Amino acid sequence: MFDFFKRKCEQPIEEAAKLKTALLELDKITKMLVKRDLALYDSKEKLTIEKGKMDAAINSLTDGLIIINLEQKIILINSKAENILNLKNGILIGKTLSEFIDLPYIKELYEILTKTEGHCRDKKCELVLKKPAEEIFEMQTTPVITQSQETIGTLIILHDITREKLINKMKSEFVTIAAHQLRTPLTGIKWTLEMILNEDEGQINQEQKELLSKAYKSNERMIKLINSLLIVSNLEEGRFIYKLSEIQIEDLIQEIIENFEVQIKNKNIECILNKPEKYLSKVKVDLEKIQMTLENLIDNAIKYTPQKGKIIISLKEENKEIKISVKDSGMGISKQDQEKLFTKFFRSEKALKTETDGSGLGLFIVKNIIEAHKGKIWVESEEKKGSIFYFTLPII
Ligand code: ADP
Fold this sequence. Notes:
11 helices, five-stranded antiparallel beta sheet, alpha+beta, binds adenosine-5'-diphosphate, 12 strands
């Protein structure tokens, strides 16, 4: 009986103890949850602040910036890009460019993007907007790649080059006018010197002849430089006209080599033309410009190769193109110089010391000509061993 009463009295005490433990546990959990909530709130706040900072940075960029995802939807556009394209704030977000094709500037942007095949590749092109004054932008498209190397979209950067273009145009026009003005008196000097050297106006002694010959050569160099400057201005202003015709390139090369016979003999150079037994496919080119290209490469090969050197010109047909190479055993070009080789006025230190005749414009012109023919040009070279200049021309 006593045990029964004892058990009856102890039961509520046990229950109360259990309840107390449970309450303590609940209190602990509540505190933990409040703490986690506060931390979450804190990180959300931090994220909002960071996003704000990022938005401010993107919107203060002086370049226009757009990101398009793989479904062609715009996921980011900064204020500068909206200004350039005359758009209302955020109107493009989540939409595709094709939905706004009727808007004038979107049309130009869309056309360039769709023209550059597979626009998830690094590309640089020009976007010209008539507003009504012309505004020119350098447009660079780059793929957006995640850390796991997955391409998730395209980044477009629009950089205003209107002023730069205008200055370049003015510079180019100045060079054209100056060159034209200089050409006439230089041609006059050429004819006068030729007459004196031919003794049309009376006899001259050997010493006078040598002095006048030097003056004649310098004058010729100036005429050559003026002509190159005119070609460069025409190229830069898009006034370099290409008249296409079908030609058999090996015949043209043979002819050019024959024209260099005197220079080749004077330097005791062995010159070989390596052409396949069978005729190559014809190429559709501007004869005068390709002639200019080959003359420049062969002239350089002779100029920068010492006495008793060797030049090999080879032709090959592969992958629907003709590949031409001009190999010499000359001074070669350092790796550092190879990077600047096709830029305007570049001449290596060594070339400046050993070969005074040259303007550094030839390879710049050659590169522009080859690229206008949808071909490629490159060089392989080692100092003191020689160089190989390659270029390709697509077969028609
Ligand atoms: P130029 O020959 O009138 O200086 P180019 O534009 O034809 O101008 O060549 C630029 C420079 O490239 C040359 O001054 C020379 O330094 C280098 N170069 C060109 N061709 C060769 C070559 N075959 N071998 C070594 N250097 C070369």
